[in-house]
Amino acid sequence: MTEIPDNCALSIENLVKVYPGTSRPAVDGLSLQVTRGTIFGLLGPNGAGKTTTISILSTLLRPTSGSVTVLGQDVLRQAEEIRRVIGLVPQEIALYPSLTARENLRYFARVLRVPGRRIEERINQCLDLVGLRDCADRRIATFSGGMKRRANLAVGILHEPELLVLDEPTVGIDAQSRNLILERLAELNRTGMTLLYTTHYMEEAQQLCDEIAIVDAGRMIACGAPQQLVAEADQCDDLEDLFLALTGKQLRD
Hints:
With 253 residues, the protein is of the alpha/beta class. The protein has helices at 50-57, 79-85, 101-111, 119-129, 145-156, 175-190, 202-208, 226-232, 239-247, and strands spanning 8-17, 27-35, 39-43, 65-70, 73-74, 86-89, 163-167, 194-198, 211-216, 219-224. 35% of the residues lie in helices and 23% in strands.
């Protein structure tokens, strides 16, 4: 097993996941490391294995083989410890539509074991961060798509995680909400929080991420700083050109 550096927030080594009833691995020998305090982009077409990888490192899914270490903790042996120090912003909106934003945050603050004396303070801080303080007492069902995405983010950071995992947090929303989310993620990173970020928007990854990995069919096909990868590729002007050159233009519905 490769020695894990002290400054490593996430280490994945030879990770494999084969779902029951399938012959092809969803994740096939994936290895990568994410340095503490950075923003790392995990990019790939539909079916590349990104969400499966996130589910494993978030302790929601057991790997078939390989190892995953999150902030020095093993995902199989120390799942409970990992859950206390990571935040997850899933692709689907994970909120109760019949509750208000504040009620949702209050509920999840208890689930995430935020100390009782700090719950209201953290709720207000998170609502302010995502620009929802004035709408805090409206039901989630009345929110626009962008507002729901911002509330989803607020839940993920309630307990001040060391590692924040985001699975396409800006999909399908207005430009203003997307811009605010990207600004706030950069702000969180400046406080020392490590971010693992998946997106289909290549311009977001190029703007936000210190380093990226491009995966396809569960395997790593490129890794490095976005600007460096683009500069080293022939006839690629930006990250989207590189992504298409590596993964092809065939539709992945």
